[in-house]
Amino acid sequence: MATKFYTAKYDRVFKTIFCNEDNTVLLKGLLSRILKKNIEIIEFLRSELPVSSTVDKAKTVDLLVKADNEYLHIELNCNYAEYLHTRNFIYFNNIYSRKVIRGEEYDYSTKFLHIDFTYGLRKNINDINYYYVMDENKNKYIDNFEMIEFNMDKIMNYWYNSDRKKVNEYKHLIMLDLDKNNLDKISIGDDFVKEYEKQVTALNNQETFQSFMSYEEDQRLIQNTEKKIAYEDGLEQGISQEKIEIAKNMLKKNIDISIISRTTGLDINTLKKLTKEVK
Question: What is the pLDDT of residue 127?
């Protein structure tokens, strides 16, 4: 069976390749093409945001850098969900509020830019969507605060539909989710894409990386499948007995008890009792 080729649509692949502080060539190239200007200086910033209370969980953003005196926050969204924009806005606002205050003054000159690479958006919206804080007359409330979202599925379709003009425009984004054979084709005549292909191929050839990704992917599939089962059964039956049966099945598969608790809504003590029943 052929080994799966993991693309930069996977969070771990994207971070491994583009968040390398010892080699910023690819990140500079990607940002230069996105922003349509040369990026000379990259400073990696702490990606873990501070928590505001004891009940908050740790928040880690995908990529946070300062590039030529602009703060850039990038999030890779493999799947779209209703909460996505709210979550990313909260993250970005957290960064903005921490960085904009300098001593006794507010920083009005430094630009703060949030960038989303989002898969699963509706295909009838724009390739790129720009968001600002403004009034109904399009007067900006904050001048140095901007958000950009790339509709990755729509952009990928340009490759599959052989739209040469659009492919040339977006090849730096299209390459992120292409397999080895298609990377061979799209990289012709483009040194930047060739370098990306070289690095993502080398990463996929690492045995330890393949093992990690396979395990991580398998666990994600198990969790998503069990959540789907729990959700559908809950809709159909609407009674706690169904949750108990789902929990028992998950326990038999040795799924972590905390995952079962989140999936079924059953508390840890109840699940511990059920564990004795299924042994």
Answer: 95
Structure tokens at 213: 């990704």
Band of pLDDT at residue 160, cut at 50, 70 and 90: very high
Long-range contacts of 140-147 (CB under 8 A, 24+ apart): 143/108, 144/100, 144/107, 144/108, 144/109, 144/110, 144/111, 144/112, 145/96, 145/112, 146/111, 146/112, 146/113, 146/114, 147/89, 147/92, 147/113, 147/114, 147/115, 147/116
| CB contact at 8 A, 212 and 239 | no
Long-range contacts formed by 39-44: CB under 8 A, 24+ apart = 39/67, 39/68, 40/68, 41/66, 41/67, 41/68, 42/66, 42/67, 43/67, 44/19
Span 50-68, average pLDDT = 61
pTM for this structure? 0.73
The DSSP code sequence of 244-256 is HHHHHHHHHTT--
- Per DSSP (E only), the strands in 24-95 are 42-44, 48-49, 59-60, 63-67, 70-77
| Residue 5 tokens, joined | 């080729």
Q: Strand 70-77 relative to strand 48-49: parallel, antiparallel, unpaired?
A: unpaired
DSSP letter at 59 equals E
